[in-house]
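Q: what sequence does this backbone want?
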């Protein structure tokens, strides 16, 4: 049985390269990982004043979804050398109320994506900083900085370069091994 993995995509636009990549990854690891996007665009901005009893239903549903999965794959663009606010907000929402974080001990992997040459290095590492604090064991190697994103997909969003596909498959294989090492038994 494949492990259930939540994919958080840090971009809201329709033709997002991150979202295209998320879909392109689905068949690459299908035997071991069931990847499914958990939408984060509708989460209200975190505000502690409205948390606890009577918290927005979207927050509660999001937290429940993350609690149920066996790992989290973050696919993020880089905005001004960091992660987009929508992704940071989702992380903040999942981390509260204090002591009830849904991220604690959840195995994770990070892929940053950019049309530029640096592959979102800055966003990747800002995100990793939060994941350290959140106590998420995160795949260290291979690191995944996907640059030149505008040249990676055909019109229907399929990956066009074998070398990229091969790399991403190896990354997902490692994520799968990582989960077996870090996830509690079934
Ligand atoms: C960007 N972009 C960008 N790219 C990058 O490599 N480093 C950066 O710091 C930034 N900063 C940045 C800020 C803002 C506000 C926007 C809107 C964009 C460009 C970004 O990589 C590009 O728009 C991607 O296509 C966004 O990812 P999706 O939407 O294709 O997944």
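A:
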């Amino acid at each position: 049985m494949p492990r259930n993995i939540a994919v958080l995509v840090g971009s809201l636009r329709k033709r997002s390269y991150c979202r295209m990549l998320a879909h392109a990854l689905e068949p690459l690891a299908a035997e071991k990982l069931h990847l499914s996007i958990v939408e984060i665009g509708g989460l209200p901005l975190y505000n502690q004043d409205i948390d606890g009893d009577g918290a927005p239903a979207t927050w509660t549903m999001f937290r429940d979804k993350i609690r149920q999965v066996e790992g989290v794959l973050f696919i993020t663009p880089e905005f001004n050398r960091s992660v987009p606010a929508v992704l940071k907000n989702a992380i903040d929402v999942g981390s509260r109320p204090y002591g009830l974080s849904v991220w604690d001990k959840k195995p994770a992997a990070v892929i940053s994506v950019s049309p530029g040459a640096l592959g979102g290095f800055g966003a990747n590492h800002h995100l990793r900083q939060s994941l350290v604090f959140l106590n998420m064991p995160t795949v260290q190697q291979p690191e995944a900085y996907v640059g030149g994103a505008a040249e990676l997909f055909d019109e229907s969003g399929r990956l066009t370069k074998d070398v990229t596909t091969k790399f991403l498959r190896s990354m997902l294989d490692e994520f799968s091994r990582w989960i077996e090492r870090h996830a509690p038994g079934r």
